[in-house]
Design a protein that fits this description.
The chain is α/β, with parallel strands linked by helices. Helices cover about 40% and strands about 15% of the residues. The strands form three sheets. A six-stranded parallel sheet has the order 2-1-3-4-5-11, with helices on both faces. InterPro entries: HTH_LacI, LacI/GalR-like_sensor, Lambda_DNA-bd_dom_sf, Peripla_BP_I.
Protein backbone atom coordinates (compact mmCIF):
# COMPACT_ATOMS: atom_id res chain seq x y z
CA UNK A 1 0.00 0.00 0.00
CA UNK A 2 1.18 3.52 -0.78
CA UNK A 3 0.94 6.52 1.51
CA UNK A 4 -2.07 6.16 3.81
CA UNK A 5 -4.46 9.12 3.72
CA UNK A 6 -7.17 10.20 6.12
CA UNK A 7 -9.84 9.22 3.60
CA UNK A 8 -8.37 5.71 3.43
CA UNK A 9 -8.77 5.31 7.17
CA UNK A 10 -12.27 6.82 7.02
CA UNK A 11 -13.34 4.29 4.40
CA UNK A 12 -12.18 1.35 6.53
CA UNK A 13 -13.80 2.59 9.74
CA UNK A 14 -16.94 3.85 8.02
CA UNK A 15 -16.82 7.48 9.17
CA UNK A 16 -16.07 10.82 7.58
CA UNK A 17 -12.60 12.15 6.87
CA UNK A 18 -13.32 14.99 9.29
CA UNK A 19 -14.09 12.52 12.09
CA UNK A 20 -10.79 10.73 11.46
CA UNK A 21 -8.93 14.04 11.55
CA UNK A 22 -10.51 15.06 14.85
CA UNK A 23 -9.87 11.67 16.40
CA UNK A 24 -6.17 11.65 15.52
CA UNK A 25 -5.73 15.25 16.68
CA UNK A 26 -7.49 14.56 19.99
CA UNK A 27 -10.15 17.15 19.18
CA UNK A 28 -13.63 17.04 20.70
CA UNK A 29 -16.75 15.66 19.10
CA UNK A 30 -15.57 12.03 18.86
CA UNK A 31 -16.42 9.38 21.45
CA UNK A 32 -13.60 7.63 23.29
CA UNK A 33 -14.60 4.32 21.74
CA UNK A 34 -14.58 5.70 18.19
CA UNK A 35 -11.34 7.60 18.74
CA UNK A 36 -9.67 4.38 19.87
CA UNK A 37 -11.03 2.45 16.90
CA UNK A 38 -9.76 5.09 14.47
CA UNK A 39 -6.37 5.26 16.12
CA UNK A 40 -5.95 1.48 16.11
CA UNK A 41 -7.02 1.29 12.46
CA UNK A 42 -4.56 4.04 11.53
CA UNK A 43 -1.74 2.19 13.30
CA UNK A 44 -2.55 -1.09 11.56
CA UNK A 45 -2.67 0.65 8.17
CA UNK A 46 0.72 2.25 8.78
CA UNK A 47 -0.40 5.86 9.02
CA UNK A 48 2.89 7.63 9.58
CA UNK A 49 1.76 10.52 11.79
CA UNK A 50 0.30 8.21 14.43
CA UNK A 51 3.54 6.24 14.61
CA UNK A 52 5.52 9.48 14.91
CA UNK A 53 3.29 10.57 17.79
CA UNK A 54 3.78 7.28 19.60
CA UNK A 55 7.56 7.57 19.28
CA UNK A 56 7.40 10.59 21.58
CA UNK A 57 6.39 8.21 24.36
CA UNK A 58 9.34 6.01 25.23
CA UNK A 59 8.64 4.66 28.72
CA UNK A 60 5.51 3.55 30.56
CA UNK A 61 5.52 2.24 34.12
CA UNK A 62 2.91 -0.21 35.42
CA UNK A 63 2.21 -0.26 39.15
CA UNK A 64 0.29 -3.00 40.93
CA UNK A 65 0.23 -4.79 44.23
CA UNK A 66 2.90 -7.41 44.74
CA UNK A 67 0.24 -10.10 45.25
CA UNK A 68 -0.93 -9.72 41.63
CA UNK A 69 2.15 -11.54 40.37
CA UNK A 70 0.96 -14.70 42.08
CA UNK A 71 -2.50 -14.37 40.52
CA UNK A 72 -2.61 -16.41 37.30
CA UNK A 73 -6.32 -16.06 36.61
CA UNK A 74 -7.23 -12.40 36.13
CA UNK A 75 -4.48 -9.83 36.46
CA UNK A 76 -2.08 -11.68 34.19
CA UNK A 77 -4.49 -11.18 31.27
CA UNK A 78 -4.70 -7.43 31.92
CA UNK A 79 -0.92 -7.18 32.21
CA UNK A 80 -0.55 -9.11 28.96
CA UNK A 81 -2.85 -6.62 27.23
CA UNK A 82 -0.70 -3.74 28.45
CA UNK A 83 2.51 -5.47 27.41
CA UNK A 84 1.14 -6.41 24.00
CA UNK A 85 -0.05 -2.89 23.24
CA UNK A 86 3.21 -1.29 24.40
CA UNK A 87 5.28 -3.74 22.35
CA UNK A 88 3.28 -3.03 19.20
CA UNK A 89 4.04 0.66 19.68
CA UNK A 90 7.75 0.14 20.48
CA UNK A 91 7.28 1.58 23.95
CA UNK A 92 9.49 0.39 26.79
CA UNK A 93 7.44 -1.04 29.66
CA UNK A 94 8.49 -1.31 33.29
CA UNK A 95 6.36 -3.27 35.76
CA UNK A 96 6.85 -2.43 39.43
CA UNK A 97 5.29 -4.30 42.34
CA UNK A 98 4.17 -2.35 45.39
CA UNK A 99 4.37 -4.27 48.65
CA UNK A 100 1.91 -3.71 51.49
CA UNK A 101 4.36 -1.79 53.68
CA UNK A 102 5.37 0.66 50.95
CA UNK A 103 1.73 1.22 50.04
CA UNK A 104 0.78 1.88 53.67
CA UNK A 105 3.74 4.25 54.20
CA UNK A 106 3.19 5.97 50.81
CA UNK A 107 6.69 5.06 49.65
CA UNK A 108 6.82 5.74 45.91
CA UNK A 109 9.27 3.51 43.96
CA UNK A 110 12.47 5.51 43.50
CA UNK A 111 12.65 4.72 39.78
CA UNK A 112 9.46 6.70 39.03
CA UNK A 113 10.15 10.30 38.02
CA UNK A 114 9.31 12.67 35.17
CA UNK A 115 12.75 12.29 33.62
CA UNK A 116 12.44 8.53 33.07
CA UNK A 117 8.68 7.89 33.01
CA UNK A 118 6.30 9.34 30.39
CA UNK A 119 3.18 7.80 31.90
CA UNK A 120 1.90 5.41 34.57
CA UNK A 121 -0.76 2.70 34.49
CA UNK A 122 -2.03 1.63 37.91
CA UNK A 123 -3.59 -1.82 37.85
CA UNK A 124 -6.14 -2.67 40.54
CA UNK A 125 -6.75 -1.16 43.94
CA UNK A 126 -4.05 0.88 45.64
CA UNK A 127 -5.00 3.16 48.52
CA UNK A 128 -6.04 6.72 47.72
CA UNK A 129 -3.13 8.30 49.55
CA UNK A 130 -0.63 6.31 47.51
CA UNK A 131 -2.30 7.16 44.19
CA UNK A 132 -2.54 10.85 45.16
CA UNK A 133 1.18 10.92 45.85
CA UNK A 134 1.84 9.32 42.46
CA UNK A 135 -0.41 11.89 40.76
CA UNK A 136 1.41 14.73 42.51
CA UNK A 137 4.52 13.83 40.52
CA UNK A 138 2.83 15.41 37.51
CA UNK A 139 3.09 12.28 35.37
CA UNK A 140 -0.06 11.29 33.42
CA UNK A 141 -1.78 8.24 34.90
CA UNK A 142 -4.54 5.80 33.96
CA UNK A 143 -6.10 3.45 36.52
CA UNK A 144 -7.53 0.01 35.66
CA UNK A 145 -10.23 -1.83 37.66
CA UNK A 146 -10.54 0.79 40.38
CA UNK A 147 -12.25 4.12 41.01
CA UNK A 148 -12.04 6.88 43.61
CA UNK A 149 -14.07 10.06 43.79
CA UNK A 150 -11.04 11.63 45.46
CA UNK A 151 -8.69 11.24 42.50
CA UNK A 152 -9.15 12.97 39.16
CA UNK A 153 -7.68 10.84 36.38
CA UNK A 154 -8.71 8.43 33.62
CA UNK A 155 -10.24 5.09 34.65
CA UNK A 156 -10.73 1.85 32.72
CA UNK A 157 -13.28 -0.56 34.18
CA UNK A 158 -15.55 -3.41 33.18
CA UNK A 159 -19.29 -2.80 32.91
CA UNK A 160 -20.08 -4.32 36.30
CA UNK A 161 -23.61 -2.96 36.58
CA UNK A 162 -24.60 -4.30 33.18
CA UNK A 163 -23.09 -7.67 34.01
CA UNK A 164 -25.08 -8.06 37.22
CA UNK A 165 -28.23 -6.92 35.43
CA UNK A 166 -27.74 -9.58 32.75
CA UNK A 167 -27.11 -12.27 35.37
CA UNK A 168 -30.23 -11.41 37.36
CA UNK A 169 -32.37 -11.13 34.25
CA UNK A 170 -31.22 -14.57 33.11
CA UNK A 171 -31.91 -16.14 36.50
CA UNK A 172 -35.30 -14.45 36.76
CA UNK A 173 -36.32 -15.70 33.33
CA UNK A 174 -35.12 -19.16 34.41
CA UNK A 175 -37.63 -19.13 37.27
CA UNK A 176 -35.36 -18.26 40.20
CA UNK A 177 -36.97 -15.97 42.79
CA UNK A 178 -34.60 -16.31 45.73
CA UNK A 179 -31.00 -15.48 44.91
CA UNK A 180 -27.96 -15.13 47.17
CA UNK A 181 -24.80 -13.09 46.72
CA UNK A 182 -21.20 -13.73 47.80
CA UNK A 183 -18.41 -11.14 47.85
CA UNK A 184 -16.28 -8.93 50.05
CA UNK A 185 -16.91 -5.19 50.21
CA UNK A 186 -13.43 -4.55 51.61
CA UNK A 187 -11.83 -5.83 48.42
CA UNK A 188 -11.78 -4.13 45.02
CA UNK A 189 -14.00 -1.33 43.76
CA UNK A 190 -15.50 -3.76 41.26
CA UNK A 191 -16.66 -6.02 44.11
CA UNK A 192 -18.51 -3.15 45.78
CA UNK A 193 -20.09 -2.09 42.52
CA UNK A 194 -21.23 -5.63 41.76
CA UNK A 195 -22.81 -5.97 45.20
CA UNK A 196 -24.56 -2.58 45.02
CA UNK A 197 -25.82 -3.44 41.54
CA UNK A 198 -27.14 -6.77 42.83
CA UNK A 199 -29.20 -5.04 45.52
CA UNK A 200 -30.49 -2.42 43.08
CA UNK A 201 -31.51 -4.77 40.28
CA UNK A 202 -32.89 -7.46 42.60
CA UNK A 203 -35.49 -4.91 43.66
CA UNK A 204 -36.20 -4.09 40.03
CA UNK A 205 -36.93 -7.75 39.33
CA UNK A 206 -38.86 -8.23 42.60
CA UNK A 207 -36.37 -10.89 43.64
CA UNK A 208 -36.30 -11.75 47.33
CA UNK A 209 -33.13 -10.59 49.06
CA UNK A 210 -32.55 -12.35 52.38
CA UNK A 211 -29.72 -10.85 54.46
CA UNK A 212 -28.89 -14.35 55.73
CA UNK A 213 -27.77 -15.16 52.21
CA UNK A 214 -25.77 -12.02 51.48
CA UNK A 215 -22.23 -13.05 52.40
CA UNK A 216 -19.75 -10.16 52.22
CA UNK A 217 -16.81 -11.49 54.23
CA UNK A 218 -15.38 -14.17 51.95
CA UNK A 219 -11.59 -14.39 51.88
CA UNK A 220 -9.77 -16.85 49.63
CA UNK A 221 -6.08 -16.77 50.52
CA UNK A 222 -4.79 -20.02 49.09
CA UNK A 223 -3.39 -20.31 45.58
CA UNK A 224 -5.37 -23.55 45.16
CA UNK A 225 -8.52 -21.53 45.73
CA UNK A 226 -10.92 -24.23 44.56
CA UNK A 227 -9.88 -26.31 47.56
CA UNK A 228 -10.26 -23.32 49.92
CA UNK A 229 -13.67 -24.45 51.14
CA UNK A 230 -13.56 -23.99 54.94
CA UNK A 231 -15.46 -20.69 54.80
CA UNK A 232 -18.31 -22.13 52.76
CA UNK A 233 -18.65 -25.29 54.79
CA UNK A 234 -19.18 -23.12 57.88
CA UNK A 235 -21.73 -20.94 56.11
CA UNK A 236 -23.77 -23.42 54.09
CA UNK A 237 -26.89 -24.59 55.92
CA UNK A 238 -28.95 -26.16 53.19
CA UNK A 239 -32.72 -26.13 53.69
CA UNK A 240 -35.85 -25.17 51.79
CA UNK A 241 -34.98 -21.53 52.59
CA UNK A 242 -31.63 -21.79 50.83
CA UNK A 243 -31.54 -19.72 47.60
CA UNK A 244 -31.98 -21.67 44.39
CA UNK A 245 -29.33 -19.50 42.71
CA UNK A 246 -26.28 -17.46 43.71
CA UNK A 247 -24.21 -14.73 42.08
CA UNK A 248 -20.56 -14.50 43.12
CA UNK A 249 -18.29 -11.46 42.87
CA UNK A 250 -15.76 -13.40 40.85
CA UNK A 251 -15.10 -16.84 39.39
CA UNK A 252 -12.67 -17.91 42.11
CA UNK A 253 -15.40 -17.49 44.70
CA UNK A 254 -17.94 -19.25 42.48
CA UNK A 255 -15.71 -22.25 41.84
CA UNK A 256 -14.82 -22.71 45.52
CA UNK A 257 -18.53 -22.36 46.39
CA UNK A 258 -19.50 -25.04 43.85
CA UNK A 259 -16.81 -27.37 45.20
CA UNK A 260 -18.15 -26.87 48.73
CA UNK A 261 -21.75 -27.49 47.71
CA UNK A 262 -20.89 -30.68 45.89
CA UNK A 263 -18.69 -31.92 48.76
CA UNK A 264 -21.79 -31.54 50.95
CA UNK A 265 -23.89 -33.52 48.50
CA UNK A 266 -25.72 -30.50 47.07
CA UNK A 267 -25.83 -30.90 43.29
CA UNK A 268 -24.97 -27.98 40.98
CA UNK A 269 -27.03 -27.05 39.03
CA UNK A 270 -29.80 -29.53 39.96
CA UNK A 271 -30.26 -28.09 43.46
CA UNK A 272 -28.40 -24.78 43.24
CA UNK A 273 -27.38 -22.63 40.28
CA UNK A 274 -24.18 -20.54 40.50
CA UNK A 275 -22.93 -17.61 38.39
CA UNK A 276 -19.42 -16.17 38.60
CA UNK A 277 -17.82 -13.02 37.20
CA UNK A 278 -14.65 -12.55 35.07
CA UNK A 279 -14.58 -15.69 32.86
CA UNK A 280 -11.12 -16.87 33.88
CA UNK A 281 -9.61 -19.79 31.97
CA UNK A 282 -10.52 -22.49 34.48
CA UNK A 283 -14.20 -21.48 34.36
CA UNK A 284 -14.37 -23.01 30.88
CA UNK A 285 -13.07 -26.43 31.92
CA UNK A 286 -14.37 -26.80 35.49
CA UNK A 287 -17.00 -29.41 36.36
CA UNK A 288 -19.61 -28.20 35.92
CA UNK A 289 -18.42 -25.56 33.50
CA UNK A 290 -19.12 -22.18 35.06
CA UNK A 291 -21.79 -19.74 33.90
CA UNK A 292 -20.17 -16.34 34.27
CA UNK A 293 -19.80 -12.76 33.06
CA UNK A 294 -16.97 -12.33 30.59
CA UNK A 295 -14.68 -9.38 31.34
CA UNK A 296 -12.49 -8.33 28.38
CA UNK A 297 -9.34 -8.43 30.47
CA UNK A 298 -6.72 -8.16 27.73
CA UNK A 299 -8.71 -5.39 26.03
CA UNK A 300 -8.76 -3.43 29.32
CA UNK A 301 -4.96 -3.46 29.35
CA UNK A 302 -4.74 -2.47 25.70
CA UNK A 303 -7.26 0.32 26.16
CA UNK A 304 -5.33 1.68 29.13
CA UNK A 305 -2.23 2.11 26.97
CA UNK A 306 -4.21 3.92 24.28
CA UNK A 307 -5.86 6.18 26.84
CA UNK A 308 -2.53 6.97 28.45
CA UNK A 309 -1.06 7.97 25.09
CA UNK A 310 -4.05 10.23 24.51
CA UNK A 311 -3.67 11.75 27.98
CA UNK A 312 0.05 12.41 27.49
CA UNK A 313 -0.74 14.43 24.36
CA UNK A 314 -3.91 16.03 25.73
CA UNK A 315 -3.35 16.83 29.39
CA UNK A 316 -5.95 19.61 29.34
CA UNK A 317 -8.81 17.42 28.05
CA UNK A 318 -11.53 16.22 30.48
CA UNK A 319 -10.77 13.00 32.29
CA UNK A 320 -12.70 9.94 31.14
CA UNK A 321 -14.36 7.02 32.91
CA UNK A 322 -14.34 4.20 30.36
CA UNK A 323 -16.30 0.96 30.72
CA UNK A 324 -15.67 -2.07 28.54
CA UNK A 325 -18.69 -4.24 27.97
CA UNK A 326 -19.31 -7.49 29.85
CA UNK A 327 -21.33 -10.38 28.47
CA UNK A 328 -23.12 -13.34 30.05
CA UNK A 329 -21.66 -16.74 29.15
CA UNK A 330 -24.15 -19.49 29.96
CA UNK A 331 -22.58 -22.86 30.69
CA UNK A 332 -23.44 -25.82 32.92
CA UNK A 333 -23.57 -24.41 36.47
CA UNK A 334 -27.07 -22.94 36.00
CA UNK A 335 -30.48 -24.28 35.02
CA UNK A 336 -34.11 -23.27 35.22
CA UNK A 337 -36.48 -24.14 38.09
CA UNK A 338 -39.78 -24.11 36.22
Amino acid sequence: MGRVRLEDIAAVVGVSKNTVSKALRGAGGVSAEMREKIRETALKMGYRRVRDLDKEVENITVLCRESFFGEPTFWSSILYGIENSARNRNIKLSVTAVDAEDEENLNIPYAINKETTNGIIIVGTLNDGFIKKIKALGIPIVVIDHYSEEIQCDYINSANKKGIYEALKYLYKSGHRKIGFIGNNEWAYSFRERYESFIYYAKKFNIEVDEDYIWLDISLKRTDFIEDTDYFKRKIKYSEKFPSAWICSNDKIALAFIKSLMDLGISVPDKVSVIGFDDIEIARISHPRLTTLNVPKQAMGERAVSQLLFRISNEDKPYEYIELNTSLIVRDSTKGVF
